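Checklist before submission:
- one chain only
- standard amino acids only
- sequence pasted in full

Submission:
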Amino acid sequence: MKKVKVLLLMLLLVFTASTVNAQKTQTKAKGKTTKQAGSLQYQCPMKCEGEKMYAKAGKCAVCNMNLKAVAKEATVFACPMKCEEEKTYAKAGKCPVCNMSLKEVKKEATAYQCPMKCEGDKTYLKDGKCPVCNMNLKQQSSKNKTKPATGHEGHNHN
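Returned file contents:
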């Protein structure tokens, strides 16, 4: 009987130790997830609220769909005098050439367009195929960029 009690006590200790270890592992994994989540934002896949972003996952207030994770855009800084042309920096500071304060640069949305111009100057926000000629859409060069079409702007709906 004494051997059975000792054996049960040993089993209880092993079970308790493995449970504590599993909880520590889960806590570490949650910590990593939290750090990774800092680089994500959430947005409605239907864009009900335009480009509105949320810090946490959840449901869209308009259509009740699950919010989709979207990577945050990195903030970049550049010299307002363009001393180094298009060179950017990850942190705010001073321009090494003219010593002016670096300013935050807003990134333009990437625009895609049919290389055959089947639809004139129509642009798209995502890469894909032209609906007319089925060619791959090409990213517009920064010199020729026009604002990407987001809906029915410019149409005459009388």
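Reviewer check: The two ends are 94 Å apart (CA to CA).
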